[in-house]
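Allow me, if you will, to draw on your knowledge of protein folds for a short while. I have a record of one protein: its chain in single-letter code and its fold written as C-alpha cells. Could you please explain, in whatever detail you think fit, how the C-alpha cells follow from the sequence? The record follows directly beneath this note:
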Amino acid sequence: MIDKRVHPRVTVELEVTCERKDGPPIGGVAKDVSMGGMFIESSESPAFGTQVTIAAKLAGADLKLPGTVRWGKPGGFGVQFGLLGARETVTIAKLLKG
C-alpha cells in the first residue's frame, strides 16, 4: 500500500475536544498529528464536511485548531486543519521535530 499523505505524521496520545456548531462537543484522543491534520480516536464520528474546532494542549500550549472532518470509521475520524496561525504552526512544527 502506498502512503499518499503530503505531510509527515507523528504518533501522539493527546486528549482533545472537538467543538462544533450543530451539536455538543465530542471528546477523543488524538493518535497522530501532522501539519495538515490529525486522527482522533472517538466513539462518535461527525459527518464528512463537519466544521470543528479542536481544543488541545500541544507542547504545553493551549490551542484551538480549526478543521474539517474528511473521513470517519468506527472508532475515530480524520480532520484536515484549516488556516492555522503562526503560534499553532510553530507548535505543531516543534511537535513534529520531537
